[in-house]
Amino acid sequence: MGHTVAGNTHKSMSGSPAFTLVELLVVIAIIGILASLLLPVLARAKMRAQNIACINNLKQLQDCSHLYILDNEDLLPPNNSVATMSGVQTNEDPNYFHSVSWLPDTDATLEYDPSNIVNGSLFPYNTSLAIYHCPSDRSTLVDTNQLRWRSYNLSLSINGWPELSPPGLGAYQWKHSGDIPAPAGAFLFIDENENSIVDSNFGAPIIGSRLQDRWFDMPADRHAQAGNLSFADGHVEHWKWLVPKVYSWFGQPVAPGELPDLRRIQNAMKQQP
């Protein structure tokens, strides 16, 4: 019987030629180049999506404040600092909390559950906890890996507690929506720096005061050195900062080149009647 001897070939069993080592290395290099080009694009797209989500959150909080105003004879949402008010944390009546502040929280870094948000005066108008947190805010609660519940604060000029605004130093405070002469220029909610956010107020010294060139609270810059603010007429703006926002302590002086950023915030607080 004859025997057929298999031919010596470099083809695979499927009949297709196999890749050489050099060809594989070329393919891997091309994939690496494409990845290096695409990853920054994807990162920018993610940042844009997070910024859009943050703007949407502020719009929804703004809607809540407008509904509150309509239900309360033009009164702006209460903006009291429970960090300096006695008896608030021991009072369990939800109606009392609602009358105290839009968010009766003493420290966002220690808010281990969302009860302060739930007990705030705006929560009944939108019960989504997500609208209180910026998706770009990766800061965590003290001694945990849990993300914080909120990233936003309300301007102290909006119906704040008078004792937080001493004459000649703190912000002027509007009590009613109709009192604001230029609503399109007065901000309500702001995306606050994760290192300065404590109670429910965002404060700044009055221009002309002895502390006019210092930060009390600081805006966030997590959107590519920019932050978002909602305004009394309902619109939201995206503000690019001249200098990165690095917060170290209450009352710190502005960094070189940063003064226009602070002045922009101060002017938007509408501190004069």
Question: How would you summarize what this structure contains?
Answer:
The chain is α+β, with helices and mostly antiparallel strands.
C-alpha Rg, in Å?
27 Å
Enumerate the strands of the largest sheet in spatial order, edge to edge or round the barrel. Answer: 3-1-2-5-6
* Low-confidence runs of at least 5 consecutive residues: 4-13, 83-91
Mean pLDDT: 84
Distance between the termini: 112 Å
- Portion of residues in helices? 25-40%
Order of helices and strands: HHHEEEEEEEH
Count of alpha and pi helical runs: 4
Fraction of residues in β-strands:
5-15%
The figure for the number of domains is: 1
Tell me about the largest β-sheet: 5 strands, mixed
What would you call the quaternary organization? single chain
What is the molecular shape? elongated
